Amino acid sequence: MPYIQMSTSWFRVIILILVCDAARAVVKLPGNKTIPAVIMFGDSIVDTGNNNYIETIFKVNYPPYGRDFSGGVPTGRFCNGKVPSDFLVEELGIKEFLPPYLDPSLDTDDLKTGVNFASGGAGFDPLTSELAKVISLSAQIDLFNEYVAKLKVAVGAETTSTILSNSLFVVVAGSNDITNTYFNNPIRRLHYDYSSYTDLLVDSASGFAQELYKLGARRIGVFGIPPIGCLPSQRTLQGGVERNCADNYNELAQLFNAKLSVELNSLNNRLPQARMVYLDVYNSLMEVILNPKKYGFSIANKGCCGTGTIEVAFLCKCPCPDVYNYVFWDSFHPTETTYRILVHQTVKKQISSFL
What we know:
Elements: H1 2-23, E1 38-42, H2 84-91, H3 108-113, H4 126-132, H5 137-155, H6 157-166, E2 168-172, H7 175-182, H8 186-191, H9 194-214, E3 219-223, H10 232-238, H11 247-270, E4 275-279, H12 282-290, E5 299-303, E6 326-328, H13 336-350
Helix pairs in contact: 2-13, 5-6, 9-11
């Protein structure tokens, strides 16, 4: 019997490897279209290590994070392996990883093919980044301006302008605003109801996208907020004894997403040459959570770390032996495999909207 169980387990891993290999296929762009670089902004979903270089408790540059990354090295990614930033440049055939901008070892090739300004714990609400003591979105813009200056020195102003206008700019934020700032901060709830708070977030996202446009970006993708009420941590804290999804968290996320989609369409109509695209992750992740077996998973309501119900960051210890069974790595962040599936679906479905 033990031999049969082991064989079944290895068979599952082999199937998953084949699926993942298929997902690695580089997307085919039309012959006259190129995406030379990816420029990333946002939070822990896409941070590839910027928080390693600042004073904050929002760091994961220690085991077991990075357990399944190249060489098993903890890089500051809030995951067991790669995160969406990495899979995006991989899917586009640009490079294997998207480096954090604050990495002192960046070279000219890194600058030309894209860098990452995201900081775990950041949000559209300025208070979110302030409370976490991380790199706010406005500070990420400041770093981007510094990056542009370096790029001009390296390749010249004309080539820099061409790189920026053809690159893919991606923004991922909003989850921390709802989970950490709105529902955990009585002052925010006192001054804002659901409608007015989502207006605040959308205004911030819109202003951020318009600032990128002024600085030379044309292809700008903004991810919606995922179904955060179904994260293992929120199930534990807000889902009752049965750990159901927290409907109020999901309701706020969906309201933001609907308003964001409308706003980005409005910006496209107002700004010449703009290709601003709302990227839906709510429905794609919810589909995986509701139908985990369809995607090769068996556990969607707990993370791989510890009990899987609340552990994240320094509480993430004693990870599960078979991470391929899990949709979530810790109680807040998906596994590398989940990210690969979501990014592949997004690129396949929406890359043409940027061209």
